[in-house]
Amino acid sequence: MAGTIRAARDEADLALVHGVRRDVFIVEQGIAEEEEWDDLDPTSEHLLAFGPDGEPVGTARLIFGEQALRITGGIEGRVLLGRLAVLKAARGTGLGAELVRAVEAAGLARGAREVELHAQVQALGFYERLGYAAEGPVYDDAGIPHRTMTRVL
């Protein structure tokens, strides 16, 4: 995919992040607004992907520090990849994999040794191809079956 991925830098970038997430999760997948927006956004690092024409086409967030410890049950050195969203027009271009690798790199820069994510079951194969392994049972998150996956960096 020709374009760039960078960390969201300001409120204008966060508005772009939220626009992509709104299109993918709320409009396309039917997730309720109150389920999509949470208290993790203000303390997370958000990555924003732009297409070749400079339009926002994808995003992902990195949860780290105390928030990651709380969610992972206190596993030191583990960060969380979440809210990976790629607009329909940019799917199949490799952008999703690029965003995953960018989150991993951002996690490594923060001292992470592993990444955890909560994958929609329909996306398990995508993450497995990137080296993630499923663990634990399938569970419901926002009305969609999910499974926890991890990868050692």
TrEMBL record:
Transmembrane segments: none annotated. It comes from the Bacteria. The keyword Metal-binding does not apply. It comes from Kitasatospora putterlickiae. Keywords: Acyltransferase, Transferase. This is GNAT family N-acetyltransferase. InterPro entries: Acyl_CoA_acyltransferase, Bact_Acetyltransf, GNAT_dom. Pfam families: Acetyltransf_10. Residues 3-153 form the N-acetyltransferase domain.
